[in-house]
Amino acid sequence: xxxxxxxxxxxxxxxxxxxxxxxxxxxxxxxxxxxxxxxxxxxxxxxxxxxxxxxxxxxxxxxxxxxxxxxxxxxxxxxxxxxxxxxxxxxxxxxxxxxxxxxxxxxxxxxxxxxxxxxxxxxxxxxxxxxxxxxxxxxxxxxxxxxxxxxxxxxxxxxxxxxxxxxxxxxxxxxxxxxxxxxxxxxxxxxxxxxxxxxxxxxxxxxxxxxxxxxxxxxxxxxxxxxxxx
Length: 230
What we know:
Layout: H1 2-5, H2 26-29, H3 55-58, E1 68-73, H4 78-86, H5 92-111, E2 115-118, H6 123-129, H7 133-145, E3 154-156, H8 168-175, E4 179-181, E5 190-198, H9 202-213, E6 218-226
Parallel strand pairs: 1-6, 2-5, 5-6
Antiparallel strand pairs: 3-4
Helix pairs in contact: 5-7
């Protein structure tokens, strides 16, 4: 009955899903481009040619987290991510979270993570948006993989300017001291940080540093979408 009154929207075309009862139009599924091997063994960025590391990681750029992986190549999913974040399409979480579990579940299990922590929104953005898209993905992912989701450990205390048009250095300055760990009562040692987009890794690094200052020893990163090398 709910599907008849409020038909599900396709996360790719945003039309009513066909056939009914599915989470994505069958014709739209092929438009999504997963980040295919080879990918960087540190940041997870898709590589333009065979290799182990992307150019940045080869040159010795250090990350606070141990490893990162992303499901989709960002350009193939950018309009969908925008609607998911800003257009109220909260329902996309079901398809995307399940696909993250399907394709990145093995990587997540390999880390030995004790739980998932979504990258938090600043309270002002949370009030405006109504939900945190990273937390929505984490809840579906956690349910599929049997991992708890912790939303009361990492907090965003700095309302940063939009990062989209900023270069790496500008992002670093913008995100400095943006996150704070207020408690780690469960004494987590290994966690997966969940986000919707991974580009330069600055958000992940700042969040990981805050978590490690709070007692977490190993931080891995999983994102819905990421960038390719080149």
